[in-house]
Amino acid sequence: MREDTRSRIAGQAVSIWLQADVDIIMKRVKRRADRPLLQTADPAATVERLISEREPVYKNADITIASRDVPHEKIVDECVDALHGWLCGAGKQPSSHT
Asked: What is the DSSP string of 4-60?
């Protein structure tokens, strides 16, 4: 979320947004207790708020991949394919995977 970090990434890397909805995020984070931002009375509402605040920034990513309830290997393969397309396609955003 920091502007200086985003600028460095934009200048030296390819950014990938793993876009996930609240249900997917909650399913994943409930397995772990080390998420300080979610140590609230209503973690789902906190996730919704964070998504709302961060999405306008995250939408600027070079590549967007829809993260969903599939094996991690599938998402990794989609990231690799999208990155390959980005690097070999002169930086054009491939269509988001759903």
From this structure: HHHHHHHHHS--EEEE--HHHHHHHHTT-S--GGG-SS-HHHHHHHHHHHHHHHHTT
Contact by Cβ (8 Å): 54, 33 = no
Segments making up each domain of the chain, as ranges: 3-88
Tell me the pTM.
0.80
Read off the amino acid at residue 54.
Answer: R
CATH of domain 3-88: 3.40.50.300
Predicted pLDDT of residue 98: 45
